[in-house]
Amino acid sequence: MTEEKPMLETGWNLDNSYARLPKSFFTKITPNAVPSPELVIFNDTLATNLGLNNVELKSKDGVAVLAGNSIPEGSIPLAQAYAGHQFGNFNMLGDGRALLIGEQIPPSGDRFDIQLKGSGPTPYSRNGDGRAALGPMLREYIISEAMHALGIPTTRSLAVVTTGESIIRETELPGAILTRVAASHLRVGTFQYAANFGTIEDVRTLADYTIERHYPHIADDENRYLSLLQEVIKRQAELIAKWQLVGFIHGVMNTDNMTISGETIDYGPCAFMDAYNPATVFSSIDYQGRYAYGNQPYIGGWNLARFAETLLPLLDDDQNEAIKMATEAIGEFNKFYHENWYAGMRAKLGIFNEEKEDEKLIEDLLNMMQNHSADYTNTFRALTLDKLEETALFNSEEFKLWNELWQARLKRQQESKDDTLQLMRNSNPAIIPRNHRVEVALESAVENGDYSVMEKLLEVLSKPYAHTQEQMDFCTVPAEIDQSYRTYCGT
Ligand SMILES: Nc1ncnc2c1ncn2[C@@H]1O[C@H](COP(=O)(O)OP(=O)(O)OP(=O)(O)O)[C@@H](O)[C@H]1O
Ligand SMILES: [Mg+2]
């Protein structure tokens, strides 16, 4: 009798709702095979949450799926079409180096896009090679997982495999594929594509699909398309407020990099701000500061106005009426954003309720931080841990006065000192993915194949509000921060 090899259940349970949309929305295409795939980093917790079999996925057959060399049962791989305003200029785009292999439905019944980024050319590749380099894919892995741990909606990272192929950028670099997980990859740019290159019915189909997938509670609203616009505006206002509160700079807020689900997407030239300065920019090609930290809320509103334009024909038969509705909805963005940001800032200072002077208290602190080039994260951490002597502001008279006002403010509220402290601990991360730390981890992985530094970094980033001693040791900022990553970020 021949011995039968036990078959491991893979856990893949894929649906392809996107492939049921009109054909113009995507191109079905199988990933290009790569010569020698090797798994270099794997997210066990996420795999388990997705109902996947970790052991199987890490086996040769499983890695073949993560490399695009084999397609799991039930998969219909496709590249999504989209368009977008890049630095203000409108272009036809689409997944030029990514493929959606399907939507995984874990036992919980949720639905998650599974996408391979770097999986080879597609009809939307334009002049690109369809590939991604190892460094930037590991960088996306680290920062997206850190964002998730910080409580910020984001696409997730399941795995990175190296391909065994070199790709050519300025130099020869090792190629890699990231498996990205998202509530969906619907972008403002997906709507722009439908509106500019399709029919009104295409936009309606896409809007209905989006409502069913992300906003089912508005399906029966009187004007469901206006509700969709309002919901997306709310989610983006919440998201961008969360970015600002932790000092995250996205770096390429093009409309194709803004999701409809309200998740952060595309970790290209992003980074966390060290010294507080609203003018901080990370992208080496952002000459105007369009995507500077302090400009992110404005750009959020600008992008959402582009989204609103795509929905105009659906909002009302009378286009003047439609424009009025859309303008009003867009006008709400600033209000929602400010409410979220302001509530978050009060929490960072341990303030529970709202007083009229709070706005000035916050503004004065930020101004001082800017004038003294104080580190954003570490200043709030020092306030949280009552280690004021650790801030760059400590010796200033101005700060002493401010501190008195702040202490007096805290005394005016009912909550106990412990509750105040807890609120601050939960609102001020002890650790964020500092770029110099990320760079060291990437260098060790890419140059020497040593992933232990990256694993350690991922571990300390996974509980940012724990405030452990070990995390403190990760928080020092060198006097001269190496800015060379400005050219490293990107593709
Ligand atoms: N190496 C490449 N080959 C082909 N197309 C590419 C390549 N790099 C980027 N693109 C395409 O250029 C456009 C803009 O790129 P951008 O950097 O915003 O996206 P990305 O990082 O590739 O992907 P995503 O937004 O999905 O994270 C997208 O259409 C993208 O697919
Ligand atoms: Mg992009």
TrEMBL record:
InterPro entries: SelO. It catalyses: L-seryl-[protein] + UTP = O-(5'-uridylyl)-L-seryl-[protein] + diphosphate; L-seryl-[protein] + ATP = 3-O-(5'-adenylyl)-L-seryl-[protein] + diphosphate; L-threonyl-[protein] + ATP = 3-O-(5'-adenylyl)-L-threonyl-[protein] + diphosphate; L-tyrosyl-[protein] + UTP = O-(5'-uridylyl)-L-tyrosyl-[protein] + diphosphate. Mg(2+) binds at residues 257, 266. The keyword Transferase applies. Keywords: ATP-binding, Magnesium, Manganese, Metal-binding, Nucleotide-binding, Nucleotidyltransferase, Transferase. ATP binds at residues 94, 96-97, 117, 129-130, 180, 187, 266. Its EC number is 2.7.7.-, 2.7.7.108. One of its GO terms (molecular function) is ATP binding. Nucleotidyltransferase involved in the post-translational modification of proteins. It can catalyze the addition of adenosine monophosphate (AMP) or uridine monophosphate (UMP) to a protein, resulting in modifications known as AMPylation and UMPylation. Belongs to the SELO family. NCBIfam families: PRK00029.1 (NF000658). This is Protein nucleotidyltransferase YdiU. It comes from Paenisporosarcina quisquiliarum. The gene is ydiU.
